[in-house]
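Need fresh eyes. Consider my entry:
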Amino acid sequence: MFACDLGSDMPVAVISRRPENLSQEIEWLRDQSVPVLVVQSLENIIRQGFGARCAFAMLLVDIDTLGDLEDVTVQLARLRRDNPELPVIMVSSGFGRDDFGITRLQVADVSLRWPVSFFRLEIAISQAHANNLEWQSRLDMIA
């Protein structure tokens, strides 16, 4: 059974211009009583100053729908810098495979190849928290 432990009662923000692409993932989260907020763009999170630090448990970002990849990575890097304790999972059909490691920490904690399964999403949520702690420790060493 899918067991989603986000360590928070705050919602997961799903960032997608076509949220129907992640409807299954949204349904899985809601089935586990995880509140989900769908947001159309990263700009909305950044510009409107949602205070992501305290407003969300995690971001699930559908990078396939957000436009220019370079712009998206710049926005994610900015969001990560301003909110280092916010776990981020990127989802894309363009990824060759899932990446649960720390190779993309500047933009996300985990990268998932779309389509996503229950099992992989569960692993991603757990690993995103672990990788996020690594991201925070790296930032502490720089500061």
